[in-house]
Amino acid sequence: MSDVVRADLEGDVAVINIDNPPVNALSTAVADGLRAAFAAVSGDGRSRAVVLACAGRTFVAGADIRELEAVAEGRGPAGGPDVHDLLTAVEDCPKPVVMAMHGTTLGGGLELAMAGHYRVAAPDASMGQPEVNLGIIPGAEGSQRLPRLVGVEAAIEMLVGGRPVRAAQALETGLVDRIVEGPLLDGAVQFAREMAGRGAPPRTRDRNDKLASPDAHAGAFRAGREMAAATRKNETAPFFALEALEAAVTLPFDAGCRREKDLVVRCLASDQARAMIHGFFAERAAAKIPGIPEDAPDVGQAAVIGAGTMGAGIATALVNAGIPVRLRDASPEALERGVVTIRKNFQRRVDRGRMTAAAMTERLAMVEAATGLVGVGDADLVIEAVFEDMGLKKNVFAELDGIAPAEAVLATNTSTLDIDAIASATRRPESVIGLHFFSPAHVMRLVEIVRGESTDARVVATASRLVKRLRKVGVVVGNCRGFVGNRMMLPYMREAQFLVEEGATPAGVDAALREFGMAMGIFAVDDMGGIDLAWRVRQQYRHLDAPGVRAPLVLDKLYAMNRWGQKTGRGWYRYEDGDRTPIRDPEVEALVAATAAEAGIARRDVTDTEIVERCMYIMINEAARILEEGHAARAGDIDTIYLSGYGFPRYRGGPLWYADSVGVDRVLARIREFHAAHGALWTPAPLLERFAAEGKNFADFHRGR
Ligand code: 3H9
After folding, report:
1. Region 302-479: CATH code
2. Which of 4, 18, 59, 65 to mutate to test the pocket of ligand 1 (most atoms within 8 A of CB)?
3. Which residue pairs from 500-503 have beta carbons closer than 8 angstroms and sit at least 24 positions apart in sequence?
4. What does the pLDDT look like over 605-626, one tens digit per residue?
5. Is 486-700 a CATH 1.10.1040.50 domain?
6. How confident is the model over 457-478, as a mean pLDDT?
7. What is the pLDDT of residue 702?
8. Ligand 1 site: residues with CB under 6 angstroms?
9. Where are the domains of the chain?
């Protein structure tokens, strides 16, 4: 039929098969192949029913996002490839069409499936409309068919939330007609035979029983809008999705489809869609590391040294991925606390119904805890997560050097220390690598994979493979102070403190940053991470402070006052017992004002625009240096780090995508002004100067140019 679509006969059932690796995306070629296949099978007297199935790991996982990217960039048809005629042909097929879904049926894949008359699924299949994660809405009539199948409320949840549902839930809502326990294709063919000869097959577009009257859904739409505002702050696509769903309730099917099309055209022309599509591909590009072997061995046995919060979180993540862990700590009490933390991590999932008690018992049994380093000699991956102290870490690595197998990967979870210095404690620095997890390690998606001067390519490959197995986002970074994420965070935090000294308040700075789209304000982040930790890091590097260069003044005072953040109930904010909500504290504001007066800093009104510009542009300037020094390979890697680990708004694409959207020359012009006003810390990065002079931007870096 075509390279990617084939039709065969299975007795009296026609089986159409899509084979378009890696995820059977509904590309133009696949859509063309399906048109031809349905034209052929519809009139073929040899078959009584049709099954549509996919080869490989999944049913269709969506429209081809590369094609959508082209449209978003102004190439290709507005609104993306039009498949209205194909979906109509599927739905109008005179024989029952059964969709056989396995893997992840997403976006255009689910829309195709809903045009079929019946859907059967493998037990571990999942399905959803994740378009909002790309800044768009379903563009292949999904907003019109989904509510007809599952009802308005469930459709709102799926379109605004963007999260897939599992097959069992899909069966309950009516999205799936049967779950097939054995071989899926056999089950689908069997189901198709059962449905053949039952008269005209049911068409989703003709169903109105779950739509009821518009008034009946007013509350659901109100709740949907509240959910969109709360969980997808400043994003436009979820509101467009709700408009499209309202059209399903108020308009006939065809008019609803036209409304959906108008809305998807607008989404695809938006900056938000471009930024979010960039984020999608940047994350996948980050996993491609040039020059590393493809056949890196899998980790069979891991050891985690240090049973604190980080160590326990890392151990949780490892056993979640099926990797047994030897958990070690010098102190029996710390070890016991670590085991309790791991148990709590699982218990939370059991309480939320995301894990069975039996699975929890099984996973806990995969953690073997003991003091010292006994038994670590059989681990092919060791992750050190002891206290952030160079002497202590070197001791651990020296000891590991004596007992770990020759081919073991020796990783450190340091967030601030020099990997090469740690590696120097061993006779095998090529085996040492940084795996910088973020807290809580079993939840946060980002892992910075820190390559030391001597780290072997094979070790990088094993680490990268491990991170993927943990279902996390790994980004390879260079061994510089703070690596990439925290290196940019440091000047960001510093600038926020300067703004406060000049007249803003911590709450005002945080509000402006949240309004910009950051998941949390920087002062709330500091309180969460611990002001004592921030202070300690500052002490380590104090000797590097250039004389005469401005330094923040308040943090040291907060530290001395025992205002260490959430853990002491007071920091930049104050906290009620057992509540993590930051409350504005006039005591801190008075302390800041007095400190500024003492230092002769004039107080003035600081606008939200200045807050955002100074916080963002100082990060962008630092990122430009990181790129130039080669500590990140691609601008997209830096964006990925901020999108997956630092709560940067996805609809802005990451700090460097954002820089491009403002305009590199405009960013540089403001940096020059800040340089003139605030001195050396604002010295423009040479790369920015070069980009501005040559009319280039970070996108040139994203594409590896
Ligand atoms: C849509 O459908 C709009 C419609 O309403 C119609 C509008 C007109 N297209 O993530 P992985 C590639 S919007 C093109 O590492 P995993 C990916 O780039 C779409 N390529 O694997 C990577 O390529 P490479 C709605 C795609 O197993 C490779 O596949 N659908 C697409 O961890 C492997 O990806 C979505 O938003 C695609 N649709 O996860 C689903 N999907 O090897 C987006 C993947 O060259 N996709 N690729 O780097 C996903 O969520 C995950 O990729 C998936 C697999 C769960 C499918």
Report:
1. 3.40.50.720
2. 65
3. 500/554, 500/592, 501/552, 501/553, 501/554, 501/592, 501/595, 501/596, 501/599, 501/601, 502/596, 502/601, 502/602, 502/603, 502/604, 502/606, 503/603, 503/604, 503/605, 503/606
4. 999 999 999 999 999 999 999 9
5. yes
6. 97
7. 59
8. 22-23, 25, 61-66, 80, 104, 106-108, 111, 130-131, 134, 138-140, 142, 284
9. 5-198+208-269, 302-479, 486-700
